Amino acid sequence: MASLLDPHARGKVILVGAGPGDPGLLTLRAVEALQTADVVVHDGLIDMRVLDHAPDHAQRISVAKQRSRHTLPQEAINALIVAHVKAGSIVVRLKGGDPFVFGRGGEEVEAVRAAGLPVEVVPGVSAALGCAAEAMLPLTHRDWSSAVSFVAGQCKGLSEQDWSGLAGVGRTLVIYMGVASGNCIADKLMKDGLAPDLPVAVLERGTLPGSRALRTVLADLGGLIEREKVVSPAIIVVGEVVLLSDAENRFAAFAAQAEALA
Is 191 a catalytic site residue? Predict the structure, then answer.
């Protein structure tokens, strides 16, 4: 590895999308990038088999995020990446899904460029695309939906977010990071005028072992998450296209059970 003072240091950053989980969904370019790495800075949800594509000598650094808290704050991650590149390393910043879809890839590109260092981005299969494909859930369809939107669903600041026009007839809404906010999300969308019986799917651990695709109606979103003990990683899909999917209709089962107890 070149020293910090070596003018011929070969360091650079490659932001790599690792896809939604299944290592088989890595792109060829992602594998090639990993094979060149001196340092891999990776998210916590990365399947460890993905890291096997990096050389044995490559340093592997986890910056796992749990419950809205990084082991390192974003500014420290940026500084870590820049320091290794300045020392001449090829740094692969490995992110779940796609780096530019709720992956803070834009922030990291800004930081690297501000340091005057080279950076490349390798796109990945986003969580929404991978999970929806596994569940046979078309996010767009000529007869059902001509638009799809992606939003972040954390409770913090949720009430201030403007989602008007993003969901409803002829549209699909995909919500990342919304498992802990199911009730808030349902209330927000119904307050915006969406029908309580609009189909909703929760896609848990998509493309990974133990994945589940569950269907209910908007008014029952929070209830489904609680009853089924859904945990992250998971995405929520709101729209009529949900009816075309293989997602298990858990609302029908819940309603039948409630009727039996009545």
Answer: no
pLDDT tens digits along 225-236: 999 999 999 999
Indicate the pTM of the whole model: 0.89
Give Cα separations from 225 to 60, 85, 133, 209, 242 (angstroms). 34, 42, 21, 19, 16
Inter-CA distances, 78 with 71, 83, 97, 100, Å: 13, 9, 19, 16
Q: Report the relative pairing of strands 234-238 and 170-176 from DSSP bridges.
A: antiparallel
Q: What is the pLDDT of residue 65?
A: 72
Catalytic residue (one of 38, 43, 98, 220): 43
Spot the catalytic one: 6, 12, 56, 65. 65
Mean pLDDT to the nearest integer, 181-188: 94
229 catalytic? Reply is no
